[in-house]
Specification:
Blueprint: E1 5-6, H1 17-28, H2 38-58, E2 65-68, H3 71-85, E3 92-96, H4 101-112, E4 116-120, H5 130-136, E5 141-145, H6 159-169, E6 174-178, E7 197-201, E8 212-216, H7 242-257, H8 261-279, E9 284-287, E10 294-298, H9 304-313, E11 316-317, H10 331-335, H11 340-344, E12 346-350, H12 357-373
Parallel strand pairs: 1-11, 3-4, 3-5, 5-6, 6-7
Antiparallel strand pairs: 2-8, 7-8, 9-10, 10-12
Length: 379
C-alpha cells in the first residue's frame, strides 16, 4: 500500500505512542476507581493524575475538570444544564451559525422545548464580532455559546473579548465555548478566556476516541447530565474510563512538551497553500486560517465530494468540511455566503506537527492530477 498522505487532522489524529502505552498499562491494572481496596485506589490515582494533567493544560484547578466521553457530551451538558441553571433569567440563547453540530443541534432541540435562539451569521471571511454578540443580548438571555476555533475555516473567534463584553453588560449570562479545535493548538490558556464552561476532546490531540472533558468554573452549580452512581463528584455518573483518561493525560503531556509544535504546523500549512496556488490557478483560498492547523480552499466548478473520493482512492486524505457532515454541504461555508461554485468545490485541509513538506508536495500533485482528470460542473 502506498504511504498514507493525511491532511485531515481536524477530523481526528493518530493515537500517540505515549497515549497508547499509558492506556495499555491502565487496562492491565483494571481496578474500578470507586473500589475501596488497594487495586481500586491505584485506578483512582490514575484518574486523579489525569485530571491534574488536563487542568494544567487548561490553566485551571483540577476540581474544575470533569471527564466526559467526547466533545459532544460536553457541549450538551454545558448547554442543557446551563440554561436550566439560568432558567429564572430567561429562555433566550445566543450562539453562532458556524458552530459544530454538537452545539447547533442541541440548540435546535432546546428550541423545540420553548427556548429562543439567536444564530449570529459570520461575514464572508467566517468571522463573528464581539459587537454582534453584545448586540444580541436581551434581558432574558440565559447563555451564550461561541466556539473558539472554527473547525472548517480555522478562524479564531474573539471569545475572551466576547466574554468580557457579555459580562460587562450582564454578569448573570453564562458563557460556553466549544474549544475542541483550540485545545493545545492556540498559544494561550483556554481558561484565560474567562468562559464559564469549556469543552475539549482527547482524539484531536493524539488520545483515543471516547474521552473528553468539560471545564466548569468554580462556584457554578451545574447539574449532571448523566445520573447514577455519583462519579466525578456526583456530576457525571458512570464508571470512569480509566484507560482513556490515562491516555488523554499522556497525550496532553506529550503535546505540551513539544514547544515548537505550533510553528512547525503553521510552516507546513503556509507552504501547502503557496504550492497549491502555484499549481492550481483555479484554486481559491476560502480561509488561510488564524490557527496553525486548519485552512479551507475551493476549486470552483468541481464537486468537493468527488475530489475527496478520488484523492482517497490514492491514499490522500482531505475533507470537504467537518467529518460530522458525512458528505452533506457545509453549513459553515453556506453561512459565509459563498457563491455556489465555491460551496460545491470547498475543501478543508488540516495539519499536525508531524506533517511534512514532502507530504504537502504529494497532496498538491494528487490534487492537480485529480483536477486535470475530472470534468467540471456547470454550477
Amino acid at each position: 500500500m502506498d504511504e498514507l498522505i493525511y491532511f485531515d487532522y481536524a477530523a481526528t489524529t493518530p493515537v500517540r505512542p505515549e497515549a497508547a502505552a499509558a492506556m495499555r498499562s491502565a487496562l492491565e491494572h483494571f481496578g474500578n476507581p470507586s473500589s475501596r481496596y488497594e487495586y481500586g485506589r491505584q485506578a483512582a490515582q490514575r484518574v486523579k493524575e489525569g485530571r491534574e494533567a488536563v487542568a494544567r493544560a487548561l490553566g485551571c484547578s483540577p476540581a474544575e475538570v470533569y471527564f466526559t466521553s467526547c466533545g459532544t457530551e460536553g457541549d450538551n451538558w454545558a448547554l442543557r444544564r446551563g440554561v436550566e441553571l439560568n432558567r429564572r433569567k430567561g429562555r433566550h440563547i445566543v450562539t453562532t451559525a458556524i458552530e459544530h453540530a454538537a452545539v447547533l443541534e442541541t440548540c435546535k432541540d432546546l428550541e423545540r422545548s420553548g427556548y429562543e435562539v439567536t444564530y449570529l451569521k459570520p461575514d464572508r471571511s467566517g468571522r463573528v464580532t464581539v459587537e454582534q454578540v453584545a448586540g444580541a443580548l436581551r434581558p432574558d438571555t440565559a447563555l451564550v455559546s461561541m466556539m473558539l476555533v472554527n473547525n472548517e475555516t480555522g478562524v479564531l473567534l474573539p471569545v475572551a473579548e466576547a466574554v468580557k463584553a457579555v459580562k460587562a453588560k450582564d454578569r448573570a449570562v453564562l458563557f460556553h465555548t466549544d474549544a475542541v479545535q483550540g485545545f493545545l493548538k492556540v498559544p494561550f490558556s483556554l481558561c484565560s478566556t474567562g468562559a464559564d464552561f469549556i469543552t475539549v476532546s482527547g482524539h484531536k490531540i493524539g488520545a483515543p476516541k471516547g474521552v473528553g472533558a468539560l471545564y466548569v468554573k468554580k462556584g457554578i452549580k451545574l447539574a449532571p447530565l448523566l445520573t447514577g452512581g455519583g462519579q466525578e463528584e456526583g456530576l457525571r455518573s458512570g464508571t470512569e474510563a480509566t484507560g482513556q483518561i490515562a491516555a488523554f493525560a499522556a497525550a496532553v503531556r506529550a503535546t505540551s512538551a513539544d514547544a515548537g509544535r505550533l510553528e512547525k504546523t503553521a510552516a507546513v500549512k503556509d507552504y501547502t497553500l503557496t504550492q497549491l496556488k502555484a499549481a492550481l490557478p483555479r484554486l481559491e483560498v476560502i480561509s488561510a486560517g488564524d490557527v496553525p492547523h486548519i485552512c479551507a480552499v475551493t476549486l470552483p466548478g468541481y464537486k468537493s465530494e468527488v475530489v475527496v473520493r478520488v484523492l482517497g482512492d490514492k491514499n490522500v486524505c482531505i475533507s470537504s468540511g467537518s467529518a460530522c457532515h458525512k458528505g452533506r454541504p457545509s453549513h459553515v461555508f453556506a453561512a459565509m455566503g459563498l457563491p455556489k461554485p465555491w460551496l460545491d468545490g470547498a475543501l478543508r485541509l488540516s495539519f499536525s506537527p508531524e506533517s511534512t513538506k514532502e507530504q504537502a508536495d504529494a497532496l498538491v500533485s494528487a490534487l492537480r492530477e485529480a483536477a486535470g482528470s475530472l470534468f467540471t460542473t456547470l454550477s
